[in-house]
Amino acid sequence: MSMALGTIEYTLGASRVNCSGVSWTAEELDTALAGPVASLVFDSEGTADIAALLESVPGTDFAGDEIARILNNDMLPKDWEVGEAIAEAYLTHHRNSYFPWPDGRDIRKPKSSLPGADLIGFHKNNEETRFAFGEVKTSKENKSPPQVV
User: Fold this and answer.
1) Which of 112, 115, 104 lies closest to 50 in space, CA to CA?
2) Is the pLDDT score of 63 beyond 60?
3) What pLDDT digit, counting tens, does each position of 34-61 carry?
4) The three-state (H, E, C) secondary structure of the chain, written as one string
C-alpha cells in the first residue's frame, strides 16, 4: 500500500543532516494509518512469522497460552510509536530508505522506550548505499516547526 507524499511544512539543517515536517490531509493520513503505518506499529509480518515458527514446536511448556498472550498484545500504541512508524513509512515510500529491524522487537517491557536513534537503516542514493539513522519528534503542537524541533 502506498503512502501520500504530503506537503512539506518546513525544512531545517544543511547537507546530509536535515530536519523536515510533513502534513497530510485527513484522508491521506487515515489511509497511511490504516495501511503501512499500522503494519509497522503492530509488526504484522513479525507476529505472523513468530506464530508460524511456534506452530513447529508443539509440546513445549513455554508455548501455548503465554505465547498467545504476548502475540495478541492489545495495548494501544503510544503517540511516539505512531510518529516513528509514520516517519519510517514515509522514508521507505518516498526517500528510498530501508529499516530492516522494527524497534518494537527490542522492547523488553511494554511501557518502555529504547535509548538511541529512533530509526536505524539504510538509504540508497543512486548507486551508493548509506547508513541512515533518524530521530523522530512527535508533537500535537499546532506550530510549524513545533517547539520540540
Assistant:
1) 104
2) no
3) 999 998 888 877 777 777 777 766 666 6
4) CCCCCCEEEEEEEECCEEEEEEECCHHHHHHHHHCHHHHHHCCHHHHHHHHHHHHCCCCCCCCCHHHHHHHCCCCCCCHHHHHHHHHHHHHHHHCCEECCCCHHHHCCCCCCCCCCCCEEEEEEECCEEEEEEECCCCCCCCCCCCCCC
Residue whose grid cell is 489511509: 31
Amino acid occupying residue 97? S
Task: Please identify which residue in the block is written with the cell numbers 515510500.
Answer: 93
**All cell numbers assigned to 32:** 497511511
Packed helices 79-94 and 26-34: angle between N→C axes, nearest 10 degrees: 90
CA distance to 11, 14, 18, 146, per residue, from 141 (Å) = 17, 24, 20, 6
The answer to whether 134 and 117 are in contact (CB under 8 A) is yes
- State pTM to two decimals: 0.76
Widest CA span of the chain, in angstroms?
57
Q: How many other CB atoms sit within 10 Å of the CB of residue 76?
A: 8
